[in-house]
Fold this protein.
Amino acid sequence: MGIIATSRLKSPWIMHFDNSSCNGCDIEVLACLTPLYDVERFGIVNMGNPKHADVLVVTGPVNRRTARVLKNLYEQIPGPKMVIAVGTCGTSGGVFHNCYNVLGGVDKVIPVDVYVPGCAARPEAIIDGVVLALQKLAKLQGVAL
Amino acid sequence: MNAWIIAIVTVIVAPFIGGLLAGIDRRITARLQGRFGPPILQPFYDFFKLLGKAKIASSRLQLIWIYGYLVFMVTALLFLVLKLDLLLLVFVIGFAGVSFALGGFSSKSPYSHIGANRELMQMLAYEPVLLLFALGVFAVNGSFLISEIFNNPTPLLARLWPIFIAVLLILTIKLRKSPFDLATSHHGHQELIKGIMTEYSGPYYALIQLTEWYEYVLLLGLVYIFWANPWWAGLIVAAVAYILELLIDNITARMTVGWAVKFVWSVGLVLCVLNLIYFWLLPIKGVS
């Protein structure tokens, strides 16, 4: 199990889902993949497919429409999996928290491991969030990161 | 007995070589794009991580087909390292491709179906060229046996260079590189998610990666036999071909399937046929 536990920390494949975000955080998530930040250094790859993903990166507040999509995507990811809520809206609903169609943060629908606040969250903060999630996973498995 | 040892060593060592090649691929691709890139061992981390994921299968049948894909690919590689029949090797590669496509068809996902359709179209493009490659080898050596290629002091490249260019095209298709990156899409997630591989997850996806590593070794082995004497010349040819493929991957856009078939048939097949005409028809005309 040792080699598998270590490998899990070295190859987190993320899937990015946009609930009903204003696209601010989405652009910052994609900025992480550009040559400037290049998260592939740490084995992080953006997959378009929940069945291949390990980390679900969710931006934007959950509304009544996207709640079931989010739940469906979460269930399609094979475990062990982690969820990172990115941006103020993703963590709490942000400025939309009282809207008639908005449920609130991502944690209203699926369990969230790491919250990355910010409007929009900086790419550095998002990378830090992924590292935090990995530290959490390392602690669970009893492996040093 | 000796053959058994070679076979076992190949089955064990080939994935390591294939995985390293995949790692080098990702590193060089990153450098070409102005990025730093992942560690060379990254494909192995990915592989072991996938082995540890939950087993979720959308259909039992597709699992049988990917085991078939793996077994046929390993068989083809063994044909190469044991220096057996090149023609049968081409057929076994065909079986492997068909297994993979049927695996894609056996789930209900439309992305998987699109990918499998494209995989079949790509096979339509490359199978005739591989077959003509085997015929070209027969024209030179009078035998389909790969051991004859190793016995021949003149390299195949000297007489079969048009076929070599066609085989480089096939290499681009089989390595799933742009402009032929159509059935699975390494980068075009928006278009077809992961194509034929969409429905495989966890350990089953790891199995596909393992098969791809065997495939890398097999394909570069096929490039190697173009200059099998002396032994190091083939390695240089294979290395240059691989780096050329990475370069082509990074400087071309992804094209459509129809274009791929037309292009490979109009350039690859024509090169092969011209090469064969030069070998077979002209001497016969001279004799009669």
User: Anything to note?
Assistant: The mean pLDDT of chain A is 88. The helical segments of chain A are 2-10, 24-31, 64-76, 87-92, 123-141. Residues 2-141 of chain A form a domain with the Rossmann fold fold (CATH 3.40.50.12280). Chain A has five helices and seven strands.
